[in-house]
Write a structure and sequence with these properties.
This protein is an alpha+beta fold. Among the domains are: about 40-120, no CATH class; about 315-430, no CATH class. The protein has 18 helices and 13 strands. The strands form four sheets. It has a five-stranded mixed beta sheet with strand order 3-13-12-10-11. Strands 4-7-5-6 form a four-stranded antiparallel beta sheet, with helices on one face. Strand 8 and strand 9 form a beta hairpin. Helix 13 crosses helix 15 (about 265-280). The radius of gyration is 24 Å and the shape is globular. It starts with a helix and ends in an 8-residue tail after the last helix. Bound molecules: adenosine-5'-diphosphate and magnesium ion. Magnesium ion binds next to loops.
Length: about 450
């Protein structure tokens, strides 16, 4: 009997710490240490002391005495804790911010994170439930368990193990980008925008699981200040931002960051788009019976890239996205074959999107529909003119890209420049149906190997 069979035979509803440790190639003792890295400020504590402040006159007075300097000093200590946790600065001697310090503040001024404190909806860890669903899927091959696992990964509160499982997604940029960049550095036809990928510390990522509109200004200031340092942002630059897997391009105002004020606020924009993507994984409550979509932000990374300025003065769709000619190539890295290239802004899907959905009557959709129709011929013509050249250069690039399996690779044309923009597993990519590809289901592994990956980490040894 395999591992999953053993696990599920013994307990049909719960999974033990021993069984989990076995799945993650570690010991229950190491696992116990690992899961204790973060303490929780629970909602009950928040509510209790929040109400207290509302009802008690002495505490209202305390509230009045809090100066913006005090808050700023606390923010700065928390930012340093977060930067130190990712090894971006060395640890200072300053005492860690405590739960008591936080609860002593009126609720509306409270930071909802520190370097090692997080706020959660439910105090229990999520990972035993997730690993139970995962093991059930592996054992029964019933896709229902897989859906439960994947949806849970996106919407449940974080703990250190869940954070590492999320980090296993091969579609996230930190997985494929180094392989693409190494290959691109060996040639000079394709370009790659300057890119900084950062692992988001767990306490910041946990904020994406809370109601975005419940986040306090103190919390948002901390995330902004952390991002300015972690990404070494330059206020005079224009940036393109996304999570490891999602850019919110459909409202391009979220993806393009221009003024110095906006650059200062990149942290909260990233938080917003991440939370927006996670919201898609919740069951649809609109009554329109839309499917729950998981995976759009199964990532623990955020990305800030050089913004590629449009050279062609193109009209825009999606509130400001220049309608470049773009190409989606499908590649099999096991055989080093280029499987085909299709237009990224596919005419049929784009026109359908703008004219046949519930929002077709809105000014935005009408605008984008008109622009798209006006540009359709140009997009096809440019595509036809360049596809030969792109194919040739891709064929020589492919053997240098160290990846396995079938992938999509998106290329954006800007004048005569060809930018390598995005990748995803072919099985998870739209437009794969436009080609006669024999699509292979990728071998999925969502179990971090704690023995081999984390053995040297301070938290576990
Ligand atoms: N660095 C950049 N500068 C300018 N435009 C970009 C940049 N990166 C992407 N884009 C544009 O934004 C679109 C979406 O980007 P992408 O990284 O593929 O995000 P998503 O994962 O949401 O599809 C691209 O198709 C391209 O038109
Ligand atoms: Mg993309």
């Amino acid at each position: 009997m395999d591992l999953f069979g053993i696990i599920l035979e013994k307990s049909s509803h719960i999974i033990s710490k021993e069984q989990i440790a076995q799945m993650l190639n570690t010991t229950p003792e190491a696992l116990a240490k690992f899961e204790k890295v973060y303490n929780i400020v629970s909602d009950e504590e928040n509510r209790a002391s929040g109400n207290f402040f509302k009802l008690n006159s002495r505490d209202v007075a305390k509230h009045m005495k809090i100066s913006s300097d005090d808050i700023a000093a606390l923010e700065s200590r928390i930012v340093n804790e977060l930067l130190a946790s990712s090894g971006l600065i060395s640890c200072k001697d300053e005492p860690l911010v405590t739960k008591e310090e936080i609860l002593n503040l009126p609720e509306e001024f409270r930071p909802q994170l520190t370097g090692n404190l997080i706020k959660k909806d439910i105090t229990q860890d999520s990972y035993p439930k997730l690993l139970f669903d995962y093991a059930k899927w592996r054992e029964t091959e019933d896709i229902h368990w897989y859906h439960m696992f994947r949806q849970g990964l996106d919407i449940l509160d974080l703990d250190p193990v869940t954070y590492e499982i999320i980090g296993m997604n091969p579609n996230s940029m930190g997985y494929w980008f180094p392989a693409l960049k190494n290959a691109a550095d060996l040639q000079d036809f394709f370009k790659i925008p300057e890119t900084k990928i950062v692992k988001v510390p767990l306490p910041i990522l946990q904020l994406t699981k809370l109601d975005y509109f419940s986040l306090t200004p103190t919390t948002l200031n901390i995330v902004d200040a952390w991002a300015r340092k972690a990404f070494e942002l330059d206020e005079n630059k224009t940036y393109f931002i996304k999570t490891g897997t999602y850019s919110s391009k459909f409202d391009f105002r979220n993806a393009k960051v221009t003024s110095s004020k906006e650059v200062q606020e990149i942290g909260q924009y990233l938080l917003f788009i991440h939370a927006q993507a996670i919201a898609m994984a919740h069951y649809d409550l609109s009554g329109r019976n839309q499917p729950c979509i998981y995976g759009v932000s199964t990532t623990n990374e955020w990305v800030v890239r050089e913004y590629i300025e449009d050279k062609e003065n193109l009209p825009c769709i999606y509130h400001g996205m220049p309608l470049h000619t773009e190409y989606r190539a499908f590649i099999d890295f096991d055989t080093n074959e280029l499987l085909g290239i299709v237009p990224y802004w596919d005419a049929e899907s784009m026109k359908k999107r703008f004219s046949q959905e519930d929002d077709a009557d809105t000014a935005d959709m009408k605008h984008d529909y008109i622009i798209y129709c006006k540009e359709e011929e140009r997009l096809q013509k440019t595509f036809d003119e360049n596809i030969g050249k792109i194919s040739d250069h891709l064929k020589s690039l492919i053997p240098d890209i160290d990846l396995k399996g079938q992938w999509s690779l998106d290329i954006m044309q800007n004048g005569e420049d060809f930018w390598l923009i995005d990748m995803a597993l072919a099985a998870n990519s739209a437009l794969v149906n436009k080609l006669p590809i024999k699509l292979e289901a990728p071998a999925e592994n969502w179990l971090p190997d704690f023995q081999n990956t984390y053995i040297n980490r301070k938290s576990i040894t």
